[in-house]
Amino acid sequence: MLIKVFQLVLLKDEKVKLEPKGKGARSGAWNSFAVVYYLGIPTKMAACLACSTVKEFKTSTKYLLRHITKCKGGAPAVAKIATPLTAAEQLHFKKLAFIVCAKELRPFRTFDGLSMKALGQALIDVGVQHGPLSINSVSLNYIYVFYSVFDWQYYM
Question: Is 0.90 topped by the overall pTM?
Answer without folding.
Answer: no
